[in-house]
């Protein structure tokens, strides 16, 4: 019995470990969030403290920090660090 | 002692008792911040925290001229320390995983298993989008872009991808960013918009 069309290998495909639906979904999510201009991780680190304080105080994100928000939506590592910073700032006595 | 930003900088840049006191206080701030920030991580012990705080103090001193005063100084310093800590934890987690092993049996072949929850029209839309994505990946991306993108999708941190290819985190981010832009352009040229991406998987 032949495979249904959508399950047949396309020309050039090998029997490799395929991307799962979750991985494809993750890739498409990243592509959808991609902007014409983005900051990198070092630039995010330079501004994430200010961003975290703004968030902690409940203020809306100013235009100058929108790029940080966008980067955090894309970069899982910076987002992990930001979430740790949020926890660190709770009850921090400056 | 409570210090404002200016006082922190003045004490840390200077010498003598003020600097020593500032370093001691900052050490305490970073230690408490790291404990709170990383409290759920079972790999953290006192020895690790001490090493991270020492490294972080050096980095903070080295980067004092980069602090622009848009946040509290201790918040900025804590963000530096968290990056040091989390980067080291990732390095330890991934140090024995080679890029070759991670990607040995992986490529951008999509999983074509039927999603039983979707109706026929939704399945067709999903399949068409995946086919186009696959086509753009192989047509528009360089081999290096495909490699780093695949490694990222498989969970390897950018810092560790960078280590394997002899680069740095920012350069790897740029590689994946350029790849994403190419994919977005390719999909938009085929008539897709960002809203289609999620819709195809939402059913």
What brief labels describe this structure?
heterodimer; A: 94 residues; mainly alpha; 55% helix; 3% strand; globular; disordered N terminus; B: 203 residues; 2% strand
Question: Which structural class matches the secondary elements of chain B?
Answer: mainly alpha
- Span between termini of chain A: 71 Å
Main sheet: strands, sense, barrel of chain B: none
Provide the gyration radius of chain B in Å.
Answer: 23 Å
Which structural class fits the helix and strand makeup of chain A?
A: mainly alpha
Work out the strand percent of chain B.
under 5%
Gyration radius of chain A (Cα, Å) is: 20 Å
Question: Can you write the helix and strand succession of chain A as a string?
Answer: EHHHH
Percent of residues in helices of chain B comes to over 70%
Overall number of strands of chain B: 1
Q: Please mark out the parts of chain B with pLDDT under 50 across 5 or more consecutive residues, or reply none.
A: none
For the residues shown, what is the average pLDDT of chain A? 82
Helix content of chain A: 55-70%
Number of helices of chain A: 4
Unreliable spans of chain A are: 1-16
Query: Globular, elongated, flat, extended or rod-shaped: what is the shape of chain B?
Result: elongated
Shape of chain A: globular
Biggest interface, residues from each chain = A-B, 51 and 66 residues
Q: What percentage of amino acids of chain A are in beta strands? A: under 5%
């Amino acid at each position: 019995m032949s495979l249904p069309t959508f399950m047949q290998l396309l020309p050039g495909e090998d029997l490799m470990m395929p991307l799962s639906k979750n991985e494809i979904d993750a890739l498409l999510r990243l592509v959808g969030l991609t902007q014409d201009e983005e900051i990198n991780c070092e630039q995010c680190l330079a501004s994430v403290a200010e961003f975290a304080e703004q968030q902690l105080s409940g203020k809306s994100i100013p235009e100058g920090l929108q790029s940080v928000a966008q980067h955090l939506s894309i970069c899982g590592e910076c987002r992990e660090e930001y979430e740790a910073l949020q926890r660190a700032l709770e009850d921090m006595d400056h | 002692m409570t210090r404002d930003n200016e006082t922190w900088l003045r004490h840390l840049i200077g010498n003598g008792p003020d600097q020593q006191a500032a370093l001691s206080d900052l050490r305490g701030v970073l230690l408490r911040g790291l404990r709170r920030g990383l409290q759920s991580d079972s790999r953290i012990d006192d020895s690790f925290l001490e090493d991270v705080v020492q490294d972080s103090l050096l980095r903070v001193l080295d980067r004092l001229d980069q602090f622009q005063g848009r946040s509290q100084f201790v918040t900025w310093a804590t963000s530096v320390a968290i990056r040091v800590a989390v980067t080291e934890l990732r390095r330890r987690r991934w140090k024995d995983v080679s890029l070759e092993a991670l990607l040995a049996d992986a490529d951008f072949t999509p999983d074509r298993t039927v999603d039983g929850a979707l109706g026929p029209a939704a399945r067709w839309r999903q399949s068409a989008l995946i086919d186009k994505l696959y086509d753009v990946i192989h047509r528009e991306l360089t081999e290096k872009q495909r490699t780093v993108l695949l490694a990222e999708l498989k969970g390897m941190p950018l810092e560790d991808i960078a280590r394997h290819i002899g680069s740095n985190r920012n350069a790897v981010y740029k590689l994946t960013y350029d790849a994403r832009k190419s994919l977005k352009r390719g999909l938009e040229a085929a008539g897709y918009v960002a809203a289609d991406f999620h819709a195809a998987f939402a059913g």
